[in-house]
Amino acid sequence: MKKLISVVLVLVMALSLLSVSAFNTIALEAENFIYTLSGTEATITGYKGTGGNITIPATLESAKVVAIADNAFYQNKNITSVTIENGVKTIGEKAFYNCNSLKSVTIPDSVTSVGNSAFSYCVYLEDVNLGKGITSISNNCFSYDTRLESIKIPEGVKMIDDGAFETCSHLKSVTLPSTLEHIGKFAFAYNYSLDKITLPENLRTIDDKAFFFDSHLKEVNIPASVKTIGNSAFYNTTSLEKVTLNEGLETIGEMAFDGTALKALSIPASVTSIGDYAFGFVYDEFTFEYRVNNNFKATCVKGSKAESYCMDMSISYDAIEIEDTTPTETPTESKPVVTEPSSNAPSDPTEPPSSEAPTTPSDPTEPATKPTDPATQNTDPSESTPATSSTAPTTSTTPAGSDSTTSTTPTESTPAGSKFKLGDVTLDGKVNIKDTTAIQKHLAKMITLEDEALAVADFDLNTKINIKDATQIQKFLAGIVEYPIKED
Question: Which of 39, 105, 196, 417 is the most exposed place for a label (fewest CB within 10 A)?
Fold first, then answer.
């Protein structure tokens, strides 16, 4: 009998648990909201109202509303404003995704988490008020909100994640909190209207392509707290004329400042890693090659990584003693440079997507073509005529900009009238990277080559000394092209 009573009690308890569980998963409805219950806490999962201005209540039939579920208002076309009452703690992924009539959102201090793409593709969203409870802006949270013109990120936020404000093409004003430590990949990419931004003193990382294609950004001060500037972080910010780097910076990624209007940059001694084409180069759309920007000059500390980079890449620079490095602000130049955005930059996507759920955008890739530097278009670099004798070798050159090497008739590696080898500009008996540096310095009028050096500096044998000779020597050293004339 006791065993029978025990079995009955177990069955009753099991049925009770099943009943509670079933009750918790039942979709309930109140005040036009669909919700589920977990004990006394409600999660809003949908909406059946007519839209307009709506308020997410703090309670529904005595249950505390603590969450807005994933996709709860997904693609709703009728809601024009949302005010969330204090008490709600989380907003799920894509909760208001593609609500293309939504213009205003107010999020209370009680909210601590906003999911990925929560307000993405709200193409008419103009006014966003964020509460003080959040600590991060999630991936693609406000991406493609093309009418958003200003945003104030509250104190307490430490991270702006990947693509958070990507393609907010009308965004002009961004206020960042002093607590911010990380700006993610593409976080503010394609913000064509953004012309200024103040980076806070606690910021440590500017990730890859963070300000990619922000074509109206004119000036940036990188605070001393920043350790890393990622690859292409400011790529094709074509109006960027002034950048201040401070002591404390350690890494400048490849192409970090490619496609900018910079004519000068001061690099602190703390920098220990510099990626390819990080600064000082322009990309030629006609030859599909990077070349040194003759309108650019770096300032660096003697013996630093930056000086080594400039020497290796044949970039014009001034080296200063360590005690003279206190001011790290970018030097000003007397002649302004004018650059224009690439014609291949993405168009302003202001039209809302179709009613079908848009595919979540993947990270943009590199543009098919890179911008040219208008300051150097349609003009040749500075040229010098080498000292040659009347018996100088006859050459047949390919058109300017071609990758092909020049064909020659001589069978000796020493040009006529010179006892030194072609390309040995430093006259040390070797052809190496120092010779390309010597040519660059000569063209920048930092040094003057002697006649013997000029006689062997014309590496492409076209009777002129210009940037192409330095480039050809670099290609020869890299094994890309052969030595221009036959060696003995």
Answer: 39
Q: Which two three-digit tokens encode residue 428?
A: 């040390």
**Vertex 238 angle, CA 236 and 243, to 5°:** 95
Q: Which two tokens stand for residue 306?
A: 């930056």
Look at the block and give the residue holding tokens 């970039």.
315
- Per-residue pLDDT band at 116 (split at 50, 70, 90): very high
The C-alpha angle with vertex 115 and arms to 110 and 117, in degrees rounded to 5, equals 130
Closest C-alpha among 186, 190, 136 to residue 162:
186
Specify the DSSP element, H or E, that contains 299. Answer: strand 297-301
Q: Could you give the angle at which helices 467-477 and 433-443 cross, rounded to 10 degrees?
A: 170
CA 119 to chain centre: 22
Q: CB–CB of 51/64 below 8 Å?
A: no
Residue 42's CB is within 10 A of a number of other CB atoms, namely: 25
pLDDT tens digits, 175-219: 999 999 999 999 999 999 999 999 999 999 999 999 999 999 999
Mean pLDDT in residue range 80-96: 98
Q: How many CA atoms, within 13 angstroms, populate the side-chain half-sphere of residue 58?
A: 6
| Dist. CA 211–CA 191, nearest whole Å | 8
Three-class secondary structure assignment of 302-338: CCCHHHHHHHHHCCCEEEECHHHCCCCCCCCCCCCCC
How many Å apart are CA 374 and CA 372, to the nearest integer? 6
Which alpha helices (DSSP H) does 279-432 contain, by range? 305-313
Write out the two tokens for 48. Answer: 């059946």
What Rg value do the Cα atoms of the chain yield, rounded?
A: 31
The kind and range of the H/E element at 297 are strand 297-301
Tell me whether strands 79-84 and 52-56 are parallel, antiparallel or unpaired: parallel
Residue 136 to residue 154: CA distance in whole angstroms: 10
Smallest CA-to-CA distance from 152 within 167, 134, 169 is with 134
Of residues 408 and 236, more confidently modeled = 236
CA atoms of 35 and 43, how far apart (whole Å):
5
Question: Residue 329: what pLDDT?
Answer: 52
Contact 87, 68 (CB under 8 A): no
Closest C-alpha to 90, from 114, 74, 108: 114
127 within 8 A of 150, measured Cβ to Cβ: no
pLDDT at 463 over 70: yes
Q: CA quadruple 332, 229, 342, 164: dihedral positive or negative?
A: negative
Amino acid identity of 28?
L
